[in-house]
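User: what does the whole thing look like in 3D?
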Amino acid sequence: MLLLLLGAVSCTNLEEEVFSETTKSTFYSSAEEVTANYLKPYTRLYVTSSLAHWICSELSADGAAWPQKGRHGYDGGKWQQLHWHTWTPEHHEIKGAWNNTYQAIGYCNEFLNNIENVDVSNYNLPVPIEQMKAEMRALRAFHYYLLVDNFRDVPVVTVVGEPTSPAPEKAADVIAFIEKEISEVIEHLPVKGESSAYGHFTKGAAHMLLAKVYLNSEVYTGTARWQDCINELEKISGYSTSANWQEPFLARNENCEENIFVVPFEESKITGFYHHAFMLHYSHKQGFDLQYSPWNGIVVQPQHFRAFDPADKRIEQFLVGPQFDQNGEPLLGTEEAKDQPLVFTVDITNMTTSREDEGARCVKYEVVVGEAFELNNDFVIWRYTDALMMKAEALMRLGKTADALPIVNKVRERAFGNASHNYTVESLTMDEFIAERGREFSLEGHRRQDLVRFGKFGDAWWDKKPTTGTEVFPYPLTATDNNPNLSN
Amino acid sequence: MRLTIALIIFFSFNVSALTEAQTVRVNVNLNKASLKEALEVIKSQSDLNFIYNNDLVNDNSQVSIDATNQDVTEVLEIMLNQAGLDYRVVDKNVIIYPVNRSNQSQVNYNTVQQQQQIVVKGTVKDNTGEPLPGVNVFEKANSTNGIITSIDGTFKIEVSSEDAILTFSFIGFQAQDINVAGRPSINVTLVEESIGLEEVIAVGYGIQKKTEVTSSIAKVTSDNFNKGFATNALQSIEGKVAGLQIVRTSGTDPNASPKVRLRGTSSLNASSDPLIIIDGITGGDIASVAPEDIESMDVLRDGSAAAIYGTRGTNGVIIITTKKGTTGDLKVEYSGYVSTEDAVALPNVLSADEYRAYGNATGIDYLDGGTNTNWSEELLRKNISHVHNVAFSGGNKNLSYRASVNYRNLEGIVVNTGQEYLNGRINLTHKGYNDRLKVQLNMSSTVMDKDYTSYSAFDMAAILNPTQPVRNEDGTYWQPGGFGEFNPVGSLNQERKGGKEKTSQLSLRADFDLLKNLTVSGFGALDVHDLLEHEYDEIASRASELGGYEGRAKRNSEHKYKKMFEGTVNYKKVINSHVFTALGGYSYEDRSYEDFWAENKDFTSDAQKYHDLSAGGGLANGRAGLDSYKKSQKLIAFFGRMTYSYESKYLLSATVRREGSSKFGDNNKWATFPAVSAGWRIVEEGFLSNTDWLNELKLRVGYGVTGNIADDPYMSIARMQAGGMYILNGQHIKSYGSSTNPNPYLQWETKQETNIGVDFGFLKNRITGSVDLYKRFTNDLLWELTAQVPPMIHNKVLSNIGEITNQGVEVALQTKIVNNGIWNVGLDATFSYNENELASLSNETFQHQGVNYEDLPGPGQLGSIFRYEEGHPIGSFYGYKYKGLTADGEWIFEDLDGEEGYTDADRQFLGNGNPKMNLSFSPYVTVKGFDFSMNFRGAFGFDILNVNKMYFGNPQWYPNNMLRSASNSPVNADPQYSDYYLEKGDFLKLDNITLGYTVPKKVLFGLDYARVYFSTLNVATFTNYSGLDPELELGALAGVDKRGFYPRTTTYTVGLNVKF
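Assistant: Here's the predicted 3D structure for the full assembly of 1548 residues, as structure tokens:
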């Protein structure tokens, strides 16, 4: 009985004990812990930009596609749906674009919410706390821009877990939120060249973000803001165009002057970039002496490949024809062309019944021989050539094609190495401009937004029929299922 | 035979044996009651059993007594004196004799004139050769002519003719008729009757007589275990308990545990495995106990039985009791067997010649490697497994022990798989302080050395080109070129995995009779589990090639530690025919889990394998890895039980457990789990007193609430976890962020279950059994809910939502068709039927239309297999409905949405993989030392998704190898998931045939017992299913015949049991 009573008194404590993690309530106790949490949202950037947004932007557009090749690549029909614009709210990649982006926002909120209750005055932080907060708010604003681009009206939350069942706000209101946030924090953001700027959200990126928002403002809100776009772009300084098209995409592109905002991938440290695995054939394991077998998924649509003049140096980013290993021996197929030499054709049967050897492949990002699973190259979210072309477009929209012409021709000259393919005021039509954007930014994750802005997203191309009303992705079913304030 | 051993002790320790009964006090107040009735009253107030001859104790002899809180021996003396009887007490058995106990006791009940004076003498013994006193011997034609055997088992009787038939009858033994046939002397061996009536059942924190149990509990004792080869102790009761499904989902993999489901699936996310309790240690690892050391397994099926285990009771409780020592001389028992296996059901793919012929006939290019290889056969070997168990037991009245050693060398039929197992166990019981204190010490330690395998080897073996060789001419393994393909023989030889596991249990239990009727008990236990695993991919292995490294070594160690303490108080109060018992207790459990692993790559030599991780160059290149982990959890409970019985006729039991767990949210740490059950032994009612054919009839009704608990201990709190690195000021720094969405409201799943049951026994208990009807509602299902994103960070949050119902019926039947001392023929059977439904998948915030889950394997990503949806059972297949094929062999599916192409909206419910009905039956025959038994087991009313056929049964699969059936398949399109690949899974298996011979004692040269047997396991499967084996996974992932597997085998075993 005594034993029982003792037990009753001393042994009713059910507090959890954690060991290999730590609880929120005890975190933020040092400069290192604060810094670690401030870096967390950045670690999600590769998913939101180089994966989720990139896949939805490119595979729904006229450049890239992931056709079914024999028994491979059906993948529940999700690639075909993206190409045909027949997606449903259950689409896996659309769900990814929603969830991953809001997760990144959630981590920004987590830092911003929690740091409010922490006295950091005695911490020796590697960057000022104002800069940390500014970057978090700007990065959050960037992700709201991605959401507006994909879904238009979306809920805006700034507190983790609150409110329950948030209702969507009008795209114009979300954009107002983005503008307010950037205007409040921009002075604390790092500037290119500062040691803390690399891989972080800089002033340059903030201007680029607003410029992107204004460029698409007509689509997003119905109100065009071309001049705002130009004004914002003109505030971008410290960047310049590279000598050739490939420099921004080389394996060691950290110091490229052209890149404004990148995901700073670094082998075995910051990982998750494997565009080459999407595109290369299984046998390219031998071809590039890779340490893994690629997936033979994404190919270049025939008309997109043919849109390049053979003299255009940018066509070098594509692999066509017979493929060889490092010793010059032909690579062999493993499926329909099993044990026969692997020869990539430009033409592709269609989205449902293609072969393993159909379609050009894109190696815009340099693939280093002997590469590990992930690429070392930094993924380019925004680069200076884009800023130039955006300004040119805004000028053209304002009827100032003559002002735009030298900007576009500068890009053109770099591609051809000379002025022989330059445009004139007459030849630089809006159609020609969007086509040139397609060539310059081929498979860089902008194409869907560009086609929507030019009203061409519903057009027919390759295996896609004309469509209407697919410019905005539906809210994913998982989001509408449990949020009564959200419905398609 | 326990009784006879006990009798011998009784005669040598006459006085001390009596003290056992003297400690019991009873209240009896009867006026002119029958002696039989009087004994029942005493029985209901004590643990005593009465052994008597029906002719001595019957309704004719009337007794009257008024005793309040009187010593039972005094009460018995008074009562039996009135009937002219005397008694002796041995252990808990009271043997009743006539007063006249002269050496040759001869009582003629009736003074019948003896017409003929034929005298027959002899001795009556039990089947172990011990003499039986008190046996009733009478002439069948004239039952008034009878006597009782004396203390040494001898008798002498005068019979009417040389052909007279003598009947020998004794409580607890089967009656026997023997023709005198002119013999002057007859020696008779009586066979013990396992009537089960006085069987004791383990209930939570105690035992009860089977007659007094009011909830649904099935007991299987070692006598009834499945005989022969077993990789796991749970196989011993496969098919023995109605409603308990035990399925070997991993074939005959010596390192795999079977899947266990009781009364259907009642959870989505939390465990559906029953709570296993081994000698009081909860959550015990079944591998830590050798099947040969188990005395009994009690399965607590319904809520009223399991509620005393609170948050862990929902999936039922299996209480395993190991064998304990018995008093007496040192006894040694050996049991062992040798087994070999044959693989059954390998994918029926094209042979090399058929493969060539198909390619040539169809004109499809294929590569001819010039050899004939049967890839599946290359993975198999002729194996021999052997198992040995030696047990020593003995003791005296105060101290008894059993010590055993179990060695198992299980060689898998797949190359490089197996397990070596060594277990030692000591169970010790010591009584002292005039038997007021009883101390039990149990110790068990197990060492296992395991060689794991990869189930994908058989997936690969099915599809590889059979004209290619296993090895190239230079001796290296041939490797295929396709994506993800590998040589499975090379893989099993060059990519080895295994582990060494140690488990130890130590428990100490003390029961002290603090007061008369009041016992205080303490139980403390430690359970330690250590595992050290290894992996090594050789430099030349395919894994190294594909992974781009030069050899890879990994070590993983885990340490599980559990300590528990339980204190209980038992109280018993008897007021006349009213018996009350009460139990109160406290339970504390603290368990932790730790894990550490390290991996390195790029080795110069294969020589050290995984024994020197630092020899690899991967650490310097950033290609090594390591991690460690720890978690812990606590469970605290207060519990109690009250029982009441009136004349052993009306029975009532109520339990309650108040339990808290560290796993749950701050707002929901504690819960209460009540249960109540009642029984009515109709057979004891007066109106049935003349029905000799009816021996037992009890009606039981029970209701109980149980819980189920989340696996992860930290899902309720906000945690910060290290994540990926990011760059700042040119440095790469580890990030930290929240790891899950916390749920401070997280609580247990709650199951409410009602059970109605009947226990019956007819015709001298030659037919016994039970029928149970149940209905269980599981609410607040633990489920990884899709979280609201935004505002939450993570996609999932572990929450409580929805409801599952299971209802069904269970029938268990034991029959003894012939039982005459020579022939013993019978049939045991179980049947169960279960209906499952996901009744709700919503709460106030979350309304789910349905959720698809479990994706089909590549290539092609053909979508998910199953869907949860309200109104449908768990494990429902969901896909396209097959409508035919076009002339070109393209798929035609039912188009539900009318839109072009087949979309998610065209998917529909196609079937279910969980059997609705399970049946098992075991006929047996024993005669003259031979025993023969068979086990049949079947499952009915379910569908199987034939995944092998879906992928390999399609001609598009060529030039990969394919099933023979593919060559004339009408399908000419890539695989799609539809009910074209669903088949009826109904099957009946002849699971076990055993033929044994027990050597007669006279040729045993001093041995007590010897039996040899031959047994085969998984003998035959009767089914229309065209795939491998229809016995598959249960629950949410039920009925998928996967591509990767470990083969089912037929096992042939020769075994020997010896006692001396």
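In plain terms: The two ends of chain B are 14 Å apart (CA to CA). Chain B touches chain A through 92 residues (CB under 8 Å).
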